[in-house]
Design goal:
five-stranded mixed β-sheet, 12 helices, 5 strands
Length: 282
């Protein structure tokens, strides 16, 4: 955009506010020890406003249009090329050919992605063709076509990507696998999990009595209030967890993640790890 365009953009209080609403939540949640994908959501409105302002400023500027149209030609070529590659993979990834692959994870991933690749090939072909058709139109028309194409591509492809491909194995799949591998009768065992896995463990194993440990800082006040009023709650301190494990006459399964602090002073009888789920059997 150039210095003058940026100076003009941020001379307006509306865009300064948008910048603040993007930067401060981004820094705050980036510094957080526990991160979830949804933490980026508060940043998106400010980012969208800034992006719209940049596009508006660019369209009003007197920059050389050769760079703009060169970028359009690049995207057109890229979309057509990616459409051809996606079509080749989708058509060529037959069950017979996939069976020849020695890597089971790659074989399963390609099999699961065939619908997404086929859809992506068609959408990218149409997307690139649309850019080619409007290449000599006004900048506004070209940008509207570009962003509309991105929206259609995202809406068409994302629902077809299995969650286990997009985000690794689902926690439920790994939890079920490590639980079955433990060889413990799940109906006759005490279940303990870290808070971020509590719901997944309860849902996957069909148990509503999962205890959570240790008490996370952000929930400590609520736990103390529950104790003060004599209300039941699922949280255990580290000491309460140790006591429960030592006193239990049944097997205790502790679900955690490999990068989390483990229960001290007690060595598990068995430790099972799958993806980002760790199960300690006591």
């Amino acid at each position: 955009l150039g210095k003058e365009s940026w100076r003009f953009l941020f001379s307006l209080s509306f865009y300064r506010m948008a910048l603040s609403s993007f930067v401060f939540p981004f820094i705050l949640f980036s510094a957080s020890s526990g991160k979830l994908p949804t933490y980026i959501l508060p940043c998106l409105p400010g980012f969208a406003i800034l992006l719209a302002g940049c596009v508006m400023t660019y369209l009003r500027s007197s920059l050389d249009s050769r760079f703009f149209h060169g970028t359009v030609r690049f995207w057109t070529f890229f979309l057509w090329t990616s459409a051809i590659l996606a079509a080749v993979v989708a058509i060529g990834a037959t069950d017979a050919r996939l069976a020849l692959l020695s890597d089971a994870d790659l074989r399963n991933a390609l099999a699961a992605l065939r619908p997404a690749l086929a859809t992506g090939a068609v959408v990218n072909l149409l997307f690139g063709t649309a850019l080619f058709v409007v290449r000599r139109k006004a900048r506004t028309v070209i940008l509207m076509t570009f962003f509309a194409g991105l929206a259609v591509l995202s809406c068409a492809i994302n629902p077809m990507i299995p969650a286990r491909i997009d985000n690794g194995k689902l926690p439920g799949e790994s939890i079920d696998l490590v639980a079955r591998t433990s060889g413990v009768d799940l109906k006759n065992a005490d279940l303990i999990a870290i808070p971020s896995l509590g719901y997944a463990v309860a849902w996957t194993l069909g148990r509503s009595d999962v205890m959570l440990t240790p008490s996370p800082g952000e929930l400590r006040y609520g736990v103390e209030e529950a104790k003060r009023h004599g209300e039941p709650h699922p949280f255990l301190t580290t000491d309460e967890t140790l006591t429960r494990i030592r006193a239990s006459k049944r097997p205790v399964l502790f679900f955690t993640r490999p990068d989390k602090e483990q229960i001290p002073k007690i060595k598990p009888k068995r430790r099972i790890i799958d993806q980002n789920i760790q199960l300690d059997v006591f």
